[in-house]
Automatic annotation (TrEMBL):
Gene Ontology terms, MF aspect: kinesin binding
InterPro entries (UniProt xref): ARM-like, ARM-type_fold, Armadillo, KAP3
Organism phylogeny: Eukaryota, Metazoa, Chordata, Craniata, Vertebrata
SUPFAM superfamilies per record: ARM repeat
Protein name: Kinesin-associated protein 3
One Pfam family hit: KAP
Species per Swiss-Prot/TrEMBL record: Dissostichus eleginoides
Amino acid sequence: MQDDARYLKRKVTAGSLDVHPTEKALVVHYEVEASILAEGGGHMLGERKEGQKIIRVKSLSPSTDVEQLLYYLQNRKSSPVEGKMEKKEKRPVKPRELTPFDGMELNEEASITRVDEYIELLYEGIPEKIRGSALILQLARNPDNLEELLHNEAALGALARVLREDWKQSVELATIIIYIFFCFSSFSQFHGVVSHYKIGALCMSVVEHELKRHDVWLSTRERLSKKRPGQSCRKYHGLLSKQEQLLRVSLYLLLNLAEDTRTELKMRNKNIVGLLVKVLERDDEELLVLVVSFLKKLSIFLENKNDMAEVDTVERLARLVPCDHDDLLNLTLRLLLNLSFDSGLRAKMVEVGLLPKLTALLGDENSRQVALRILYHISIDDRFKGMFVYTDCIPQLMQMLYEHGEEDTEAELLSICINLAANKRNAQLICEGNGLKMLMKRALKMKDCLLMKMIRNISQHDGATKPVFIDYVGDLAAEIRAEEEEEWVLECLGTLANLTIPDLDWELVLKEYNLVPYLKDRLKPASAEDDLILEVVIMIGTVSMDDACAAMLAKSGIIPALIELLNAQQEDDEFVCQIVYVFYQMVFHQATRDVIIKDTQAPAYLIDLMHDKNAEIRKVCDNTLDIIAEYDEEWGRKIQSEKFRFHNNQWLEMVESRQADESEPYLYDNDNDRTDLFYSADGITPADGSVSPDFFNDLQPQNGDMHHTGDGSDVFDQTSSSPGRPATAYGFRPDEQPFYQYS
């Protein structure tokens, strides 16, 4: 017998079962029977060998009933928890294993001992090469034979040579030989031999060539269909079927090789993404499952994702949503989820009409989770929040929230609701019927911070939704306690702070729920997280719109606490803006104006901030200082002097820069780009440029002053129907539509 003979049959027979004499273990006895086939395929030689396996059981004791234990292990079922997890998390979808293609099956059965005969056929004509490679494929499809074939370098070398030379002459031959190497590529330890014969690079060439050939077929078919419609169509479908078999086996081999990221990078350099996206035009579902799986694997890398963005991948995928093939739909959604992390590709998804399609999938139990996550990513963009109004998304989301009952609501569901509630029209849809009542009831009962964050977003919008919150002011105020979790208090306090409702009696709320001590205590720097302290400041600004509330807060000593906080948070524009707004409210009311002007240093801080870099802070300062200057002559002169000093410095800087510029022939030019720095009064300006601050006693609007619009309305005018509390230090209210410039 030759030394390199291999066991081709292996049979294991179970034997007796014993308890280990010294350890807590079971001993299983078994018998292995190995057989070697003769040259004709019959039994030639057999050998039996006994063995044993030790199975350790930690809970085994002298009183353990071994037979009962074994019976339990054999018949046990998965626990309810495991079953629930299996239902919730489906296994990752993979392409179906390749089955024999048309033309590969032969009437004869291949034998491992006749490989040399099959190799000789590879040196004959195309029909003989197809027969020889098909017989070798029969052997390669049995994993037990792969190692034997691996050591037969003559066979692999001949197959690689034939593929390299003849793949363009016969689609069947190319398909069979690539299938043989695919069998090797299914096991990571055999990837080396596939790479050695450069089969991966050859498959890339095959795929590229076949896609070009398909384009030629389409043009030819279109031309011939005018002459012989039926005949050209039948011929095309026959060619297409064979080509798709070749594409499928080639791409599957490349997918297996792409386990190695270095190999994947080589594929990327040869435009694998472009080739795969081109194949998405096909209709064969099994081929599409394979291609989408490949793209999904590639999409986790930034470079591949960028390549997909350049070749209109989203447009090709849009036609697959929805589809009847469950695996294909699942894979397509997961690929779209990977791509949806890119803002440009999210925009493309909306552009190609995926938003209503994804919304429709919320009713499908199998697709709901992935569709929900994609919709969440789309809802992040302010551009697209308003588009959800024109779909059935919000009613479905509200129904899903209602169906959860008292169970913990999924994070994805609440997250998308939070994002959508930041849009005014979405908020109105959410509040329709008893929507807000249901949300508030559940949030207060379960103390769900995410649900309250959604309610907080709804409360920020002016219009019909805000008055609805009056019924829940007491419930929210009752949650503002030191004993509650900070995160929960933050959301409840933020919701209350958004309720700038003129008819609301804030004095009664503050007294009944004893909120003033809590608010004052939380103003101390580092007394809580910055987010909570900021909400306290905003809340004080909101309630200070009421005269009685402003007086109550001023008497409680909150203003010195705010000044201390201003010193501690002077680098944070958001804190500064909201604290200055509280000062504005205090000087606006007669009852608290004297306290601010005479008993605190607030005006001095406002003068320092009147030329702040932040436009919103400057705006609030200007309004506040205008009121102070009107009611207190001494502070009015100081404010006037500071404004003059600031303008004068800017004037001098401009003059010096002009003098330094030798290319400028004249100091004063008609196209001066800083006309706001030139003072004028009825066209008279002293020649020496020296102007006393008293010249501007009428407080004419200048750079840095409040410029009133033509209709006389003021951003912070308390007499207007909508009080002007700044939503943010950055000048953007959440319910405004931002401007986006599309290139």
